[in-house]
């Protein structure tokens, strides 16, 4: 049975219990979304836990997670529903040749021939679900317009069948990497959550949660180095996901400290552009040697 989100603290603790360490605003917005029945638009750089937040909310509320991954060219047939043409054709072929068109039509536009896609599945669900509309900025503007209807009325109209209304209101999260500006109309309907790279202390907690075998001192050093690297002018700064990967790699390599040699050997786990590698090798090495790390 799905559980409710009763207070901001409960949300934060609940997320923590399923392995997601939420900041104050994350817990607050998630709580309000449940209470107000409004979708949340989560924006922020890559790898800061936008997608994971939806998954964690599903785990902590014991709701089913329904995910719609957006991409260029995503259309209603893949997001809402489509008719199962092959099955319809088969039915038409097996109908007696003298069956009237009216009769055939009634037959082939029934629920049995409907293929539900994520948005319809979320609306149809009898138990409340978490609906993750991931990377909405990758879909086209027309798709966004269509989505508005679903998100404001929580219903989908199918010309041949009628209107499907939500049985229970889903908790909706939309994520965006900001690859394009979203429409004001969409933003107006959503609560907004900006996720950024966390403070050292919280990132340390996250890293320790995902890589508990790494000695605390090394983990702290790792997070400090990552923060310092983020401060360099890079094409793609390392994300939380990369901090976690680095921690796991250092465990495997049995690293007991992070010095210039270790950094040089494992740098490609946290920076993934040719030019960024050069920048880090040049700048971070010097800082490590001089012990100039903040922290
Ligand atoms: N607050 C957090 N608590 C625990 N783990 C976290 C947290 N934030 C991020 N992570 C971890 O970081 C990794 C990346 O998170 P996620 O995939 O959600 O990023 P994202 O923001 O959706 O990135 P992208 O924009 O590239 O899709 C995941 O493995 C996740 O477990
Ligand atoms: Mg994501």
Supply the key terms:
295 residues; alpha/beta; Rossmann fold; 2 domains; five-stranded parallel sheet; two-stranded antiparallel ribbon; 9 strands; 49% helix; binds adenosine-5'-triphosphate; binds magnesium ion
Task: Give the secondary structure arrangement, pairings included.
Elements (H helix, E strand, L loop, with lengths): L7 H10 L6 H13 L3 E4 L6 H12 L2 E6 L6 H4 L1 E3 L1 H10 L6 H8 L5 E3 L1 H7 L4 E6 L6 H13 L1 E4 L3 E4 L5 E6 L7 H5 L2 E4 L5 H11 L5 H15 L9 H14 L6 H7 L7 H17 L5
Q: What is the level 1 CATH name of the largest domain? A: Alpha Beta
Q: How many E-type strands?
A: 9
Number of H- or I-type helical stretches: 14
Based on the coordinates given, report the CATH architecture of the largest domain: 3-Layer(aba) Sandwich
Overall form: elongated
Please tell me how large the radius of gyration is.
24 Å
The CA-CA distance between the termini, in Å, is 44 Å
Structural class: alpha/beta
Oligomer: single chain
Low-confidence stretches: none
Question: Could you give me the name of the CATH homologous superfamily of the largest domain?
Answer: P-loop containing nucleotide triphosphate hydrolases
Q: Major beta sheet, specifics?
A: 5 strands, parallel
- Averaged pLDDT: 91
State the CATH topology of the largest domain.
Rossmann fold
Order of helix and strand elements from N to C terminus: HHEHEHEHHEHEHEEEHEHHHHH
What topology, given as strand order, has the largest sheet?
Answer: 2-5-8-1-9
Helical amount: 40-55%
> Which small compounds were modeled alongside the protein?
adenosine-5'-triphosphate, magnesium ion
What fraction of the residues are assigned to beta strands by DSSP?
5-15%
Our count of domains comes out at 2
